[in-house]
Design brief:
The chain is α+β, with helices and mostly antiparallel strands and 144 residues long. 17% of the residues lie in helices and 39% in strands. The longest helix is centred in the N-terminal third of the chain and has 12 residues.
């Protein structure tokens, strides 16, 4: 396993929260991208939704504190807006970890190819912990 990092969701105030976290912890954002820059129109987003944060990351030691704003505000619930994001060393490891974590739990998004990773999926384990599993592989995704 390459890394495990906390991943937070917000309802339109991810930038405000991360400006605060940066003032507390210091440092500079490793990435900050809104849905407009991320091709949000192709995801069916419009208006103010395009200015929400698609991904933001603040280095904390050897880890990253990461987050995004939700695209369906009605789905946002404090208490279920925290994930553990794990980056697997290989596609096979991503499959094994995802299958193991989702066993007895539920799959929110099946492991699949996305713009930023060869494999990415979201599940909730049988203990109620939310996980994002990815294997970036050869995908080169950059801001802007």
């Amino acid at each position: 396993m390459k890394t495990a990092n906390p991943y937070l969701n917000f309802d339109g105030n991810a930038r405000e929260a991360f400006d605060h976290y940066r003032s507390v912890f210091g440092g500079e954002f490793a990435m900050s991208m809104c849905f407009r820059e991320f091709g949000g129109e192709s995801m069916g987003l419009s208006g103010d939704m395009l200015d929400r944060i698609a991904h933001i990351a603040l280095p904390l030691g050897d880890s990253l504190l990461m987050a995004s704003d939700v695209t369906r505000p009605g789905d946002f619930k404090i208490g279920t807006n925290t994930y553990v994001a794990v980056e697997a060393d290989s596609g096979e490891e991503a499959d094994r970890v995802f299958d193991g974590l989702s066993a007895g739990g539920r799959v929110e998004m099946p492991l699949q190819k996305v713009e930023w990773a060869e494999k990415f999926g979201i599940c909730v384990d049988r203990f109620g912990v939310q996980w994002m599993v990815s294997h970036t592989g050869d995908v080169q995704f950059s801001q802007g």
